[in-house]
Protein backbone atom coordinates (compact mmCIF):
# COMPACT_ATOMS: atom_id res chain seq x y z
CA UNK A 1 0.00 0.00 0.00
CA UNK A 2 2.77 2.38 0.97
CA UNK A 3 4.53 1.69 -2.36
CA UNK A 4 1.31 2.37 -4.29
CA UNK A 5 0.75 5.70 -2.54
CA UNK A 6 4.37 6.65 -3.16
CA UNK A 7 4.03 5.82 -6.87
CA UNK A 8 0.74 7.71 -7.05
CA UNK A 9 2.22 10.83 -5.47
CA UNK A 10 5.32 10.66 -7.66
CA UNK A 11 3.22 10.31 -10.81
CA UNK A 12 0.93 13.16 -9.76
CA UNK A 13 3.89 15.47 -9.10
CA UNK A 14 5.62 14.61 -12.36
CA UNK A 15 2.51 14.89 -14.53
CA UNK A 16 0.39 17.61 -12.95
CA UNK A 17 2.62 19.61 -10.61
CA UNK A 18 6.17 19.89 -11.93
CA UNK A 19 5.29 21.01 -15.50
CA UNK A 20 2.92 23.65 -14.10
CA UNK A 21 5.50 25.02 -11.68
CA UNK A 22 8.26 25.08 -14.30
CA UNK A 23 6.17 26.80 -16.99
CA UNK A 24 4.57 29.27 -14.56
CA UNK A 25 8.07 30.32 -13.47
CA UNK A 26 9.14 30.56 -17.11
CA UNK A 27 6.08 32.65 -18.00
CA UNK A 28 6.75 34.99 -15.08
CA UNK A 29 10.43 35.36 -16.07
CA UNK A 30 9.55 36.24 -19.67
CA UNK A 31 6.47 38.24 -18.62
CA UNK A 32 4.03 36.04 -20.54
CA UNK A 33 0.44 35.14 -19.80
CA UNK A 34 -0.34 31.69 -18.42
CA UNK A 35 -2.84 30.27 -15.89
CA UNK A 36 -1.28 28.84 -12.75
CA UNK A 37 -2.75 25.39 -13.38
CA UNK A 38 -2.96 23.80 -16.81
CA UNK A 39 -6.07 21.66 -16.66
CA UNK A 40 -4.91 19.50 -19.58
CA UNK A 41 -2.28 17.65 -17.53
CA UNK A 42 -4.91 16.32 -15.15
CA UNK A 43 -6.61 14.44 -17.99
CA UNK A 44 -3.29 12.81 -18.89
CA UNK A 45 -2.79 11.94 -15.21
CA UNK A 46 -6.17 10.17 -15.02
CA UNK A 47 -5.31 7.98 -17.99
CA UNK A 48 -1.89 7.15 -16.55
CA UNK A 49 -3.64 5.15 -13.80
CA UNK A 50 -5.78 3.10 -16.18
CA UNK A 51 -5.06 0.49 -18.79
CA UNK A 52 -4.75 3.41 -21.22
CA UNK A 53 -1.38 4.38 -19.73
CA UNK A 54 0.26 4.88 -23.12
CA UNK A 55 -2.59 7.13 -24.24
CA UNK A 56 -2.05 9.19 -21.10
CA UNK A 57 1.67 9.52 -21.83
CA UNK A 58 0.94 10.45 -25.44
CA UNK A 59 -1.56 13.09 -24.37
CA UNK A 60 0.95 14.46 -21.88
CA UNK A 61 3.44 15.00 -24.71
CA UNK A 62 0.75 16.72 -26.80
CA UNK A 63 -0.41 18.90 -23.90
CA UNK A 64 3.15 19.84 -22.94
CA UNK A 65 3.92 20.82 -26.54
CA UNK A 66 0.72 22.89 -26.74
CA UNK A 67 1.55 24.56 -23.42
CA UNK A 68 5.00 25.53 -24.68
CA UNK A 69 3.68 26.69 -28.06
CA UNK A 70 1.10 28.87 -26.30
CA UNK A 71 3.99 30.63 -24.54
CA UNK A 72 6.13 30.79 -27.68
CA UNK A 73 3.28 32.32 -29.68
CA UNK A 74 3.21 35.27 -27.30
CA UNK A 75 6.75 36.18 -28.39
CA UNK A 76 6.92 34.97 -31.99
CA UNK A 77 3.41 34.80 -33.41
CA UNK A 78 2.79 32.10 -35.99
CA UNK A 79 -0.24 31.14 -38.04
CA UNK A 80 0.84 27.75 -39.31
CA UNK A 81 3.03 25.15 -37.63
CA UNK A 82 5.48 25.24 -40.53
CA UNK A 83 6.13 28.88 -39.61
CA UNK A 84 8.12 27.46 -36.68
CA UNK A 85 10.69 26.11 -39.13
CA UNK A 86 11.29 29.65 -40.33
CA UNK A 87 11.42 31.06 -36.79
CA UNK A 88 13.81 28.34 -35.60
CA UNK A 89 16.48 29.74 -37.94
CA UNK A 90 16.76 32.80 -35.69
CA UNK A 91 17.27 30.99 -32.39
CA UNK A 92 20.98 31.87 -32.37
CA UNK A 93 20.09 35.54 -32.94
CA UNK A 94 17.51 35.60 -30.15
CA UNK A 95 18.16 37.26 -26.77
CA UNK A 96 19.93 35.03 -24.26
CA UNK A 97 16.84 34.67 -22.03
CA UNK A 98 14.93 33.10 -24.94
CA UNK A 99 17.82 30.75 -25.71
CA UNK A 100 18.09 29.65 -22.06
CA UNK A 101 14.31 29.18 -21.94
CA UNK A 102 14.37 26.89 -24.97
CA UNK A 103 17.22 24.84 -23.49
CA UNK A 104 15.37 24.63 -20.17
CA UNK A 105 12.19 23.40 -21.85
CA UNK A 106 14.05 20.65 -23.71
CA UNK A 107 15.89 19.65 -20.52
CA UNK A 108 12.63 19.50 -18.55
CA UNK A 109 10.92 17.42 -21.22
CA UNK A 110 13.87 15.01 -21.41
CA UNK A 111 13.99 14.57 -17.63
CA UNK A 112 10.25 13.99 -17.37
CA UNK A 113 10.38 11.40 -20.17
CA UNK A 114 13.17 9.48 -18.41
CA UNK A 115 11.33 9.61 -15.09
CA UNK A 116 8.06 8.45 -16.66
CA UNK A 117 9.87 5.48 -18.10
CA UNK A 118 11.06 4.41 -14.66
CA UNK A 119 7.75 4.84 -12.83
CA UNK A 120 6.29 1.39 -12.12
CA UNK A 121 3.27 0.60 -14.22
CA UNK A 122 0.42 1.08 -11.82
CA UNK A 123 -3.14 0.37 -12.90
CA UNK A 124 -5.29 1.42 -9.96
CA UNK A 125 -8.94 2.37 -10.36
CA UNK A 126 -9.02 4.13 -6.97
CA UNK A 127 -6.08 6.35 -7.87
CA UNK A 128 -7.61 7.07 -11.27
CA UNK A 129 -10.86 8.05 -9.51
CA UNK A 130 -8.95 10.38 -7.16
CA UNK A 131 -7.26 12.04 -10.14
CA UNK A 132 -10.61 12.33 -11.95
CA UNK A 133 -12.17 14.12 -8.96
CA UNK A 134 -9.21 16.50 -8.72
CA UNK A 135 -9.64 17.18 -12.42
CA UNK A 136 -13.39 17.82 -12.07
CA UNK A 137 -12.82 20.25 -9.20
CA UNK A 138 -10.20 22.08 -11.23
CA UNK A 139 -12.58 22.16 -14.20
CA UNK A 140 -15.24 23.68 -11.97
CA UNK A 141 -12.83 26.45 -11.01
CA UNK A 142 -12.07 26.93 -14.73
CA UNK A 143 -15.73 27.19 -15.72
CA UNK A 144 -16.88 29.45 -12.90
CA UNK A 145 -13.79 31.60 -12.48
CA UNK A 146 -13.85 35.33 -13.23
CA UNK A 147 -13.53 35.80 -16.98
CA UNK A 148 -13.20 39.57 -17.07
CA UNK A 149 -9.58 39.20 -18.12
CA UNK A 150 -10.47 37.59 -21.42
CA UNK A 151 -7.85 35.59 -23.23
CA UNK A 152 -6.49 37.28 -26.35
CA UNK A 153 -5.54 35.60 -29.60
CA UNK A 154 -1.81 35.72 -28.81
CA UNK A 155 -1.86 36.02 -25.01
CA UNK A 156 -3.39 33.73 -22.41
CA UNK A 157 -4.92 35.42 -19.38
CA UNK A 158 -2.30 35.38 -16.67
CA UNK A 159 -4.59 36.04 -13.71
CA UNK A 160 -6.69 32.89 -14.05
CA UNK A 161 -6.01 30.15 -11.54
CA UNK A 162 -6.99 27.36 -13.92
CA UNK A 163 -6.94 27.32 -17.70
CA UNK A 164 -6.48 25.13 -20.74
CA UNK A 165 -3.97 26.18 -23.41
CA UNK A 166 -5.30 23.34 -25.57
CA UNK A 167 -8.89 24.63 -25.46
CA UNK A 168 -7.58 28.18 -25.98
CA UNK A 169 -5.67 27.04 -29.08
CA UNK A 170 -8.64 25.13 -30.50
CA UNK A 171 -11.01 28.05 -29.84
CA UNK A 172 -8.85 30.72 -31.42
CA UNK A 173 -7.48 28.64 -34.27
CA UNK A 174 -11.02 27.83 -35.42
CA UNK A 175 -11.97 31.49 -35.73
CA UNK A 176 -12.86 32.90 -39.11
CA UNK A 177 -9.99 35.38 -38.89
CA UNK A 178 -7.38 32.62 -38.89
CA UNK A 179 -9.28 30.54 -41.42
CA UNK A 180 -8.68 33.29 -43.98
CA UNK A 181 -5.00 32.32 -43.90
CA UNK A 182 -5.89 29.02 -45.60
CA UNK A 183 -8.44 30.25 -48.17
CA UNK A 184 -7.97 29.72 -51.89
CA UNK A 185 -9.08 31.76 -54.87
CA UNK A 186 -7.94 35.15 -56.17
CA UNK A 187 -6.00 36.97 -53.47
CA UNK A 188 -6.98 40.45 -54.63
CA UNK A 189 -10.15 42.08 -55.84
CA UNK A 190 -10.35 44.41 -58.83
CA UNK A 191 -11.06 47.35 -56.53
CA UNK A 192 -8.45 50.11 -56.36
CA UNK A 193 -8.67 51.62 -52.88
CA UNK A 194 -8.11 55.31 -52.17
CA UNK A 195 -4.70 55.72 -50.56
CA UNK A 196 -2.46 58.36 -49.04
CA UNK A 197 0.34 57.27 -51.38
CA UNK A 198 -1.65 57.99 -54.55
CA UNK A 199 0.82 60.64 -55.78
CA UNK A 200 3.78 58.40 -55.03
CA UNK A 201 2.12 55.75 -57.18
CA UNK A 202 1.98 58.07 -60.22
CA UNK A 203 4.63 57.04 -62.73
CA UNK A 204 4.96 60.43 -64.47
CA UNK A 205 6.17 62.36 -61.40
CA UNK A 206 9.75 62.48 -60.16
CA UNK A 207 9.98 60.88 -56.69
CA UNK A 208 11.93 62.53 -53.90
CA UNK A 209 15.42 61.06 -53.35
CA UNK A 210 14.57 59.86 -49.83
CA UNK A 211 11.08 58.68 -48.89
CA UNK A 212 9.57 57.38 -45.65
CA UNK A 213 6.17 55.71 -45.54
CA UNK A 214 4.76 54.99 -42.07
CA UNK A 215 1.57 52.97 -41.70
CA UNK A 216 0.60 53.79 -38.13
CA UNK A 217 -1.14 50.99 -36.25
CA UNK A 218 -4.67 51.88 -35.06
CA UNK A 219 -4.31 55.61 -35.75
CA UNK A 220 -7.87 56.87 -36.04
CA UNK A 221 -9.79 60.10 -36.57
CA UNK A 222 -10.86 61.56 -33.20
CA UNK A 223 -14.32 63.12 -32.97
CA UNK A 224 -12.73 66.06 -31.16
CA UNK A 225 -10.41 67.65 -33.74
CA UNK A 226 -8.36 69.24 -30.96
CA UNK A 227 -7.24 65.76 -29.95
CA UNK A 228 -5.63 65.17 -33.35
CA UNK A 229 -3.98 68.59 -33.21
CA UNK A 230 -2.51 67.63 -29.85
CA UNK A 231 -1.15 64.36 -31.25
CA UNK A 232 0.51 66.19 -34.14
CA UNK A 233 1.68 69.15 -32.05
CA UNK A 234 5.28 67.85 -31.70
CA UNK A 235 5.60 67.91 -35.51
CA UNK A 236 3.96 71.31 -35.79
CA UNK A 237 6.41 72.73 -33.26
CA UNK A 238 9.35 71.82 -35.48
CA UNK A 239 8.70 75.07 -37.39
CA UNK A 240 10.90 75.57 -40.43
CA UNK A 241 12.54 72.16 -40.07
CA UNK A 242 9.46 70.95 -41.94
CA UNK A 243 9.10 72.59 -45.34
CA UNK A 244 5.59 71.31 -46.13
CA UNK A 245 2.72 69.74 -44.19
CA UNK A 246 -0.83 68.75 -45.06
CA UNK A 247 -3.37 66.30 -43.71
CA UNK A 248 -6.51 64.45 -44.76
CA UNK A 249 -8.71 61.41 -44.15
CA UNK A 250 -9.53 58.17 -45.95
CA UNK A 251 -12.66 56.05 -45.71
CA UNK A 252 -11.44 52.53 -44.90
CA UNK A 253 -12.51 49.34 -43.15
CA UNK A 254 -10.27 46.31 -42.90
CA UNK A 255 -7.39 44.56 -41.16
CA UNK A 256 -3.84 45.85 -40.87
CA UNK A 257 -2.56 43.89 -43.87
CA UNK A 258 -5.33 45.38 -45.98
CA UNK A 259 -4.18 48.84 -44.91
CA UNK A 260 -0.62 47.92 -45.85
CA UNK A 261 -1.58 46.62 -49.28
CA UNK A 262 -3.69 49.73 -49.82
CA UNK A 263 -0.67 51.99 -49.38
CA UNK A 264 2.17 49.82 -50.70
CA UNK A 265 0.49 48.20 -53.69
CA UNK A 266 -2.88 49.95 -54.18
CA UNK A 267 -4.54 46.51 -53.77
CA UNK A 268 -7.54 45.18 -51.81
CA UNK A 269 -7.15 41.59 -50.49
CA UNK A 270 -9.91 38.98 -50.65
CA UNK A 271 -8.17 36.85 -48.04
CA UNK A 272 -4.90 36.70 -46.11
CA UNK A 273 -3.42 33.49 -47.52
CA UNK A 274 -0.59 35.30 -49.31
CA UNK A 275 2.18 32.72 -48.87
CA UNK A 276 2.07 31.42 -52.44
CA UNK A 277 0.60 34.49 -54.16
CA UNK A 278 2.91 36.02 -56.77
CA UNK A 279 0.62 37.85 -59.18
CA UNK A 280 0.00 41.63 -59.10
CA UNK A 281 2.92 42.44 -56.80
CA UNK A 282 4.97 43.68 -59.74
CA UNK A 283 3.15 47.04 -59.72
CA UNK A 284 3.78 47.73 -56.00
CA UNK A 285 5.47 50.98 -55.08
CA UNK A 286 8.74 49.41 -53.81
CA UNK A 287 9.15 47.46 -57.07
CA UNK A 288 8.58 50.65 -59.06
CA UNK A 289 11.07 52.64 -56.98
CA UNK A 290 13.61 49.84 -57.12
CA UNK A 291 13.45 50.03 -60.91
CA UNK A 292 14.45 53.70 -60.53
CA UNK A 293 17.55 52.81 -58.53
CA UNK A 294 16.18 53.09 -54.98
CA UNK A 295 17.30 50.95 -52.09
CA UNK A 296 14.03 49.69 -50.61
CA UNK A 297 13.68 48.67 -46.95
CA UNK A 298 10.85 47.57 -44.67
CA UNK A 299 10.47 47.36 -40.89
CA UNK A 300 7.87 45.74 -38.66
CA UNK A 301 8.43 44.89 -35.01
CA UNK A 302 6.29 41.73 -34.99
CA UNK A 303 7.12 38.30 -36.42
CA UNK A 304 7.45 38.15 -40.18
CA UNK A 305 5.34 35.01 -40.41
CA UNK A 306 2.23 36.95 -39.41
CA UNK A 307 0.13 37.83 -42.47
CA UNK A 308 2.79 36.01 -44.53
CA UNK A 309 4.94 39.13 -44.64
CA UNK A 310 8.12 37.05 -45.02
CA UNK A 311 6.71 35.97 -48.40
CA UNK A 312 4.99 38.99 -49.90
CA UNK A 313 7.28 41.79 -48.66
CA UNK A 314 10.11 40.61 -50.99
CA UNK A 315 7.62 40.17 -53.84
CA UNK A 316 6.42 43.73 -53.30
CA UNK A 317 10.00 44.88 -53.89
CA UNK A 318 11.70 45.26 -50.50
CA UNK A 319 15.44 44.53 -50.53
CA UNK A 320 16.15 44.84 -46.80
CA UNK A 321 13.55 43.64 -44.29
CA UNK A 322 13.68 43.82 -40.48
CA UNK A 323 11.28 41.79 -38.34
CA UNK A 324 11.32 41.01 -34.63
CA UNK A 325 13.08 37.70 -35.13
CA UNK A 326 16.02 38.85 -37.27
CA UNK A 327 17.40 41.50 -34.93
CA UNK A 328 18.38 41.52 -31.26
CA UNK A 329 16.32 44.20 -29.53
CA UNK A 330 17.05 45.90 -26.23
CA UNK A 331 13.56 45.15 -24.92
CA UNK A 332 10.19 43.67 -25.85
CA UNK A 333 6.86 45.50 -25.92
CA UNK A 334 3.44 44.14 -25.00
CA UNK A 335 0.45 45.76 -26.73
CA UNK A 336 1.27 43.30 -29.44
CA UNK A 337 4.25 40.92 -29.02
CA UNK A 338 7.34 42.40 -30.60
CA UNK A 339 9.84 45.22 -30.68
CA UNK A 340 9.25 48.73 -29.32
CA UNK A 341 8.62 51.53 -31.80
CA UNK A 342 10.79 53.97 -29.85
CA UNK A 343 13.69 51.56 -30.44
CA UNK A 344 12.67 50.59 -33.99
CA UNK A 345 12.91 54.21 -35.13
CA UNK A 346 16.70 53.80 -35.01
CA UNK A 347 16.47 51.27 -37.85
CA UNK A 348 14.62 53.81 -39.99
CA UNK A 349 17.12 56.55 -39.11
CA UNK A 350 20.08 54.41 -40.12
CA UNK A 351 18.55 53.26 -43.41
CA UNK A 352 17.54 56.73 -44.58
CA UNK A 353 20.94 58.15 -43.63
CA UNK A 354 22.59 55.90 -46.22
CA UNK A 355 23.79 57.56 -49.44
CA UNK A 356 21.80 57.24 -52.62
CA UNK A 357 18.07 57.04 -53.21
CA UNK A 358 16.23 55.40 -50.31
CA UNK A 359 12.65 54.25 -49.74
CA UNK A 360 11.83 53.07 -46.22
CA UNK A 361 8.52 51.52 -45.14
CA UNK A 362 7.64 51.19 -41.44
CA UNK A 363 4.57 49.50 -40.00
CA UNK A 364 4.37 50.56 -36.35
CA UNK A 365 3.31 48.12 -33.65
CA UNK A 366 2.91 49.40 -30.08
CA UNK A 367 -0.38 51.24 -30.64
CA UNK A 368 -2.03 47.89 -31.41
CA UNK A 369 -4.94 46.77 -29.24
CA UNK A 370 -4.84 46.09 -26.27
CA UNK A 371 -2.89 49.35 -25.86
CA UNK A 372 -0.72 48.13 -23.01
CA UNK A 373 0.68 51.00 -20.95
CA UNK A 374 3.84 49.02 -20.26
CA UNK A 375 4.80 50.21 -23.75
CA UNK A 376 4.47 53.84 -22.68
CA UNK A 377 7.81 55.40 -21.75
CA UNK A 378 6.99 59.00 -22.75
CA UNK A 379 3.61 60.23 -21.50
CA UNK A 380 2.83 63.46 -23.35
CA UNK A 381 -0.95 63.22 -23.72
CA UNK A 382 -3.37 64.34 -20.99
CA UNK A 383 -6.64 62.45 -21.40
CA UNK A 384 -8.36 64.46 -18.65
CA UNK A 385 -7.91 67.62 -20.69
CA UNK A 386 -10.26 66.17 -23.31
CA UNK A 387 -12.70 64.47 -20.92
CA UNK A 388 -11.43 61.01 -21.85
CA UNK A 389 -11.49 58.48 -18.97
CA UNK A 390 -7.90 57.80 -17.97
CA UNK A 391 -8.40 54.03 -17.68
CA UNK A 392 -10.17 53.64 -21.04
CA UNK A 393 -8.89 51.94 -24.18
CA UNK A 394 -9.32 55.26 -26.00
CA UNK A 395 -6.98 57.00 -23.55
CA UNK A 396 -4.36 54.26 -23.79
CA UNK A 397 -4.50 54.33 -27.59
CA UNK A 398 -4.03 58.10 -27.70
CA UNK A 399 -1.15 58.05 -25.23
CA UNK A 400 0.70 55.49 -27.37
CA UNK A 401 -0.05 57.44 -30.56
CA UNK A 402 1.24 60.63 -28.90
CA UNK A 403 4.41 58.81 -27.87
CA UNK A 404 5.08 57.83 -31.49
CA UNK A 405 4.67 61.34 -32.88
CA UNK A 406 6.73 62.81 -30.04
CA UNK A 407 9.54 60.28 -30.65
CA UNK A 408 9.50 60.99 -34.38
CA UNK A 409 9.62 64.75 -33.79
CA UNK A 410 12.51 64.29 -31.35
CA UNK A 411 14.42 62.36 -33.99
CA UNK A 412 13.79 65.03 -36.62
CA UNK A 413 14.81 67.75 -34.15
CA UNK A 414 18.06 65.86 -33.57
CA UNK A 415 18.88 66.11 -37.27
CA UNK A 416 17.74 62.67 -38.42
CA UNK A 417 15.62 62.11 -41.56
CA UNK A 418 17.33 65.02 -43.29
CA UNK A 419 15.82 65.67 -46.71
CA UNK A 420 13.22 62.92 -46.34
CA UNK A 421 9.70 63.13 -47.77
CA UNK A 422 7.25 61.53 -45.32
CA UNK A 423 3.77 60.05 -45.45
CA UNK A 424 2.15 58.80 -42.23
CA UNK A 425 -1.25 57.11 -42.52
CA UNK A 426 -3.40 54.96 -40.25
CA UNK A 427 -3.92 51.31 -41.16
CA UNK A 428 -7.46 51.15 -39.73
CA UNK A 429 -9.51 52.87 -37.06
CA UNK A 430 -8.76 51.79 -33.45
CA UNK A 431 -10.27 48.59 -32.13
CA UNK A 432 -12.26 49.63 -29.04
CA UNK A 433 -14.34 46.83 -27.51
CA UNK A 434 -16.74 49.26 -25.83
CA UNK A 435 -18.68 50.48 -28.87
CA UNK A 436 -20.28 53.39 -27.02
CA UNK A 437 -16.87 54.54 -25.89
CA UNK A 438 -15.55 54.27 -29.43
CA UNK A 439 -18.48 56.17 -30.95
CA UNK A 440 -17.98 58.98 -28.43
CA UNK A 441 -14.33 59.52 -29.33
CA UNK A 442 -13.53 58.13 -32.80
CA UNK A 443 -15.05 58.46 -36.27
CA UNK A 444 -15.93 54.98 -37.51
CA UNK A 445 -14.08 53.51 -40.51
CA UNK A 446 -11.87 56.51 -41.17
CA UNK A 447 -8.10 56.87 -41.01
CA UNK A 448 -6.03 60.07 -41.08
CA UNK A 449 -2.91 60.82 -43.08
CA UNK A 450 -0.30 63.55 -43.11
CA UNK A 451 2.45 64.39 -45.60
CA UNK A 452 5.47 66.58 -45.13
CA UNK A 453 9.08 67.07 -46.19
CA UNK A 454 11.96 67.60 -43.81
CA UNK A 455 14.54 70.30 -44.48
CA UNK A 456 17.79 68.99 -45.86
CA UNK A 457 20.60 69.74 -43.46
CA UNK A 458 22.88 70.63 -46.37
CA UNK A 459 20.71 72.04 -49.14
CA UNK A 460 17.20 73.44 -48.97
CA UNK A 461 14.60 71.93 -51.23
CA UNK A 462 10.86 72.15 -51.67
CA UNK A 463 8.70 69.08 -51.96
CA UNK A 464 7.29 68.38 -55.39
CA UNK A 465 4.10 67.56 -53.56
CA UNK A 466 3.58 71.21 -52.60
CA UNK A 467 0.52 72.57 -54.31
CA UNK A 468 -0.48 69.21 -55.78
CA UNK A 469 -2.11 67.56 -52.78
CA UNK A 470 -5.63 68.20 -54.04
CA UNK A 471 -4.98 65.70 -56.82
CA UNK A 472 -4.68 62.88 -54.29
CA UNK A 473 -8.08 63.00 -52.69
CA UNK A 474 -11.31 64.93 -52.60
CA UNK A 475 -10.88 65.50 -48.88
CA UNK A 476 -10.03 69.01 -47.72
CA UNK A 477 -6.45 69.38 -46.54
CA UNK A 478 -5.50 71.87 -43.86
CA UNK A 479 -2.16 73.49 -43.12
CA UNK A 480 -0.97 72.55 -39.65
CA UNK A 481 -0.55 75.53 -37.37
CA UNK A 482 2.82 76.20 -35.93
From TrEMBL:
UniProt-annotated location(s): Cell membrane
Ranges for domain Sulfatase N-terminal: 269-375
Keyword Transmembrane appears in the UniProt entry: yes
Annotated TM spans: 12-32, 52-79, 100-119
Top-level taxon in the UniProt lineage: Bacteria
This protein's GO CC annotations: plasma membrane
Keywords linked to the UniProt accession: Cell membrane, Membrane, Transmembrane, Transmembrane helix
Membrane topology summary: Multi-pass membrane protein
Primary localization: membrane
Matching Pfam families: Sulfatase (PF00884)
Name under which the protein is recorded: Sulfatase N-terminal domain-containing protein
Species assigned in the record: Rheinheimera lutimaris
Taxonomic lineage from the root: Bacteria, Pseudomonadati, Pseudomonadota, Gammaproteobacteria, Chromatiales
Amino acid sequence: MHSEIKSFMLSFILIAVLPNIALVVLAAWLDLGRPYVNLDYLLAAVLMFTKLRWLGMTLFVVFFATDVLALLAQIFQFIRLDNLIYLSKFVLQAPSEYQFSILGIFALFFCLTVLFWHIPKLTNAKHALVMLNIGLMAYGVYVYSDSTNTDKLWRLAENHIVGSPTLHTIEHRSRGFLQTFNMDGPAFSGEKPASATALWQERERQPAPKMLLVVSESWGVPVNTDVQKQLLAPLARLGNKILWQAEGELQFHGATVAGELREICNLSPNHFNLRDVTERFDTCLPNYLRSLGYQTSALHGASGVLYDRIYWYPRAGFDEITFFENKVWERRCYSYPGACDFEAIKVAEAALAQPGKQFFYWLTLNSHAIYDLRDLVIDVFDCNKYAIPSNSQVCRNLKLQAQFFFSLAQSIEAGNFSGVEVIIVGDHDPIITNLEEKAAHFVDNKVPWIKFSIRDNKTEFHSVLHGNVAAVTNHTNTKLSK
